[in-house]
């Protein structure tokens, strides 16, 4: 992965930032300041799969053909105004929205509106190795590859300037919902062609252009991201004139910045800070039950986690209820499946692994490790909805595992490095998690655990189990929801037996903000969306 030059950003300049952001000029221009938890790994949603990157680009800069509005779960029209599906489920024909303008920036001035060429450019880059942009950025497209979209999409036909037809190699029940995901954000073919002529194609992923509500202005690594409202946005200009991300990894520092007025909205407030924020006369907290799961992935390609008895032992060794109480302060429930109960097809009848250290020791002995073993435990370096304090949880895990003879060294990295290394499979055990992209079980059971998801790094356990894989692939081929549910229930039973993860928690999502902020909604899909938000 390629990153921008690093600029140190510490607490020592917070006062200067506050003075700058809240000057009379910026107030007059309606600038909203959002304190985010980490730096984005890219500004092209095709090339990443982490929430911090998606928040910083896909929902701000881009649009998809179909979309899910904030706080909702049903698909609506985006850059496509309507669509039809053939009776055999192999052809999806989209009518495209007219008079949609791409953003004008200091580095690109569009000469035409959005049309079918942009749809073909966006998807063909990901699916065709012969495409001039396919290998730009490394040629790995996490979502696209993990869902085997390259095998699924047989062809994309430009019927006319405002009609596009996707031709599939097989029926795919969640295909339409998948087109609302971040990886399907539409890019500008004209911009791509300009950069090819200039022999600087890599700039497409560093200096983004889209049709969305905000225009990218500047990124200072580990410090700030600046945007301005897109004046010609097809849904109408944002009430906000400017949007600024202030990258603040420490949750307690984010809370202090909110209290001092340096930020209007903060992501992932520390659970311990919530009562004080709620009592503050100028602040507010909003919440929603999230569609997420936090988990401990065990890399089955690295001994001793290639042994199922060891993985089951780890499941019995961890006191997850204690983590809910201490880390989430009760704002979560213990997880037992790889997807949350709010998604249809959840297997409620599965009997969870209970906390039994003695049973864990017995399983380790049976696996050939009567005295345990030593390994690494990677701790999440940023606050996420599914794990607000990776360090604290890792310390509690370390103590639990020591009781059964597993000695762990806690390891962590900055967020982009953490993501890059886990995708390379360098970990043994690591904390990670996921928030739903749609209401379809495929968003968890296929995207995170299929064999196809290993090369792209989405399957963090690197677990390829053919009986499981056949079930999730069959579930995508049928449209009957009852039959799909049967496949997904059986898949969850196999997951439980094979235990490639310790499913940890399903959490409540919190956002804290100034009472001057209006129109912001907590989204159960875990996104932070700013179009329609205003300051009063």
Strand content: 15-25%
Distance between the termini: 40 Å
Instruction: Write the CATH architecture name of the largest domain.
Output: Roll
Number of alpha- plus pi-helical segments: 19
Mean pLDDT: 92
Tally of DSSP β-strands: 20
The CATH superfamily of the largest domain is: Dipeptide-binding Protein, Domain 3
As a whole number of angstroms, the C-alpha radius of gyration is 23 Å
Largest sheet: 12 strands, mixed
Give the overall silhouette: globular
Number of domains: 3
Helical percent range? 25-40%
CATH level 1 class label of the largest domain: Alpha Beta
Class from secondary-structure proportions = alpha+beta
- The protein's oligomeric status is single chain
Low-confidence stretches: 1-27
CATH topology of the largest domain: Dipeptide-binding Protein, domain 3
Structure description:
The protein is of the alpha+beta class and 536 residues long. It has three domains: 1-43 and 213-282 and 515-536, D-Maltodextrin-Binding Protein, domain 2; 63-211, Dipeptide-binding Protein, domain 1; 292-509, Dipeptide-binding Protein, domain 3. 29% of the residues lie in helices and 21% in strands. It has 19 helices and 20 strands. The strands form four sheets. Strands 1, 8, 9, 10, 11, 12, 13, 14, 15, 16, 17 and 18 form a twelve-stranded mixed beta sheet that branches. It has a four-stranded antiparallel beta sheet with strand order 4-5-7-6. The chain has a two-stranded antiparallel ribbon with strand order 2-3. α12 (308-317) packs antiparallel against α14 and α18 (466-477) packs antiparallel against α19 (481-498). It is globular, with a radius of gyration of 23 Å. Residues 1-27 have low confidence and may be disordered.
């Amino acid at each position: 992965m390629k990153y921008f030059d690093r600029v140190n950003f510490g607490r020592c300049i917070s006062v200067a930032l506050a003075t700058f952001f809240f000057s009379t000029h910026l107030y007059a221009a309606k600038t909203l300041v959002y304190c985010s938890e980490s730096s984005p790994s890219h500004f092209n949603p095709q090339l990443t799969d982490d929430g911090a990157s998606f928040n910083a680009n896909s929902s701000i800069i881009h649009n998809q053909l179909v979309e899910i509005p904030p706080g909702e779960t049903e698909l609506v029209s985006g850059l496509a105004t309507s669509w039809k599906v053939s009776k055999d489920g192999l052809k999806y024909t989209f009518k495209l929205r007219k008079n949609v303008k791409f953003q004008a920036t200091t580095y690109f001035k569009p000469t035409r509106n959005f049309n079918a060429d942009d749809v073909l450019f966006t998807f063909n880059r990901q699916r065709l190795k012969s495409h001039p942009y396919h290998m730009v950025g490394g040629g790995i497209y996490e979502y696209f590859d993990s869902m085997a979209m390259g095998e699924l999409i047989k062809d994309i036909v430009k019927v006319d300037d405002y009609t596009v037809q996707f031709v599939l190699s097989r029926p795919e029940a969640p295909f339409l919902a998948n087109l609302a995901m971040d990886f399907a954000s539409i890019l500008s073919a004209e911009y791509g062609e300009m950069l090819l002529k200039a022999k600087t194609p890599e700039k497409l992923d560093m200096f983004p252009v889209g049709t969305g509500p905000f225009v990218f202005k500047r990124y200072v690594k580990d410090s700030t991201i600046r945007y301005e409202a897109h004046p010609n946005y097809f849904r109408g200009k944002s009430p906000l004139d400017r949007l600024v991300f202030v990258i603040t990894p420490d949750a307690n520092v984010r809370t202090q910045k909110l209290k001092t007025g340096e930020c209007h909205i903060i992501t992932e407030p520390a659970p311990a800070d919530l009562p004080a924020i709620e009592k503050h006369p100028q602040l507010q907290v909003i919440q929603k039950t999230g569609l997420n799961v936090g988990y401990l992935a065990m890399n089955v390609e690295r001994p001793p986690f290639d042994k199922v008895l060891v993985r089951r032992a780890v499941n019995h060794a961890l006191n997850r209820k204690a983590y809910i109480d201490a880390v989430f302060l009760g704002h979560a429930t213990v997880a037992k499946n790889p997807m949350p109960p709010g998604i249809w097809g959840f297997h409620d009848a599965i009997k969870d692994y209970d906390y039994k250290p003695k049973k864990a020791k017995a399983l380790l002995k049976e696996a050939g490790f009567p005295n345990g073993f030593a390994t690494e435990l990677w701790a999440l370096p940023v606050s996420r909805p599914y794990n607000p304090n990776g360090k604290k949880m890792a310390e509690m895990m370390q103590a639990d595992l020591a009781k059964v003879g597993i000695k762990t060294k806690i390891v962590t990295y900055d967020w982009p490095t953490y993501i890059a290394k886990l995708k390379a499979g360098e970990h043994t055990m690591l904390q990670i998690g996921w928030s739903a992209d749609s209401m379809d079980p495929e968003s968890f059971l296929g995207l995170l655990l299929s064999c196809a998801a290993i090369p792209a790094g989405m399957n963090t356990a690197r677990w390829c189990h053919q009986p499981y894989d056949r079930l999730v692939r069959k579930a995508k081929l049928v449209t009957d929801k009852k039959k799909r549910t049967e496949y997904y229930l059986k898949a969850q039973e196999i997951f439980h037996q094979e235990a490639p993860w310790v499913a940890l928690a399903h959490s409540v999502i919190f956002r804290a903000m100034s009472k001057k902020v209006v129109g912001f909604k907590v989204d159960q899909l875990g996104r932070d969306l700013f179009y329609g938000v205003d300051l009063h």
